[in-house]
Amino acid sequence: MSAASGVRPTKGYLMETKTRIQVVERGTEFLKLKRDQLAKQLTESLDVLRGRRILLLKNLQEAYSALTAAYLSLGPTEVKSQVRAIRKPLTLEVLPRSVMGVVYPSVRVKDKPEIAAELDITLAHAAEEVYEIIEELIHLAEFEERVERIAQELGTTNRKVNALENFVIPDMKAIIKFIEDKLDEESMEELVRTKLIGGAKASRR
Fold this sequence. Notes:
By secondary structure, the chain is mainly α. The protein has helices at residues 11-74, 76-83, 121-204; strands at 86-88, 91-99, 102-111, 114-115. The protein has a two-stranded antiparallel ribbon with strand order 1-4. A two-stranded antiparallel sheet has the order 2-3. Helix 1 packs across helix 2 (76-83) and helix 1 runs antiparallel to helix 3 (121-204). The longest helix has 84 residues, at 121-204. The protein is rod-shaped. The chain starts with 10 loop residues before the first helix and ends with a helix. The relative contact order is 0.16.
């Protein structure tokens, strides 16, 4: 079906459509800017995410080595006994953050675990390494969610731009051309009619 089907070919509707297409074109330009910024944010976030994954693997290896050293030094029974000295659990706070209108959860450590008694030096070192792993996992999860939500918004924005550029704006331009052609046709018919009437009156004299 033609975009101009059922359109009223009037000057008023022509002006209304021209005003609307200007608004739509400005909106499309804004969405294209948003799309470009989202693509930039996605690229930067992916780079950070890759860096954090590399750091996590390194920290995991160090934590495993530290825990192995503690078990070899103290033995499993003593390690379990000293671990019971950890009283206060880790608590987190989740807050919303936004980038280019995309909201994602930001996680921060509110309270760190508290140790009621002094740990053996090897176990204390292992505990520090494990805590670093936990912090890195928190940041990694935050960035993964950030990347996923930015990617979703980028896809949505790109689909909107494509729809506006490939369907909405061309249809509106087709409507404008249809109305202008109709108005030109009517104007020409009126001019011919006027000349015919003027010629008929002149021939009677």
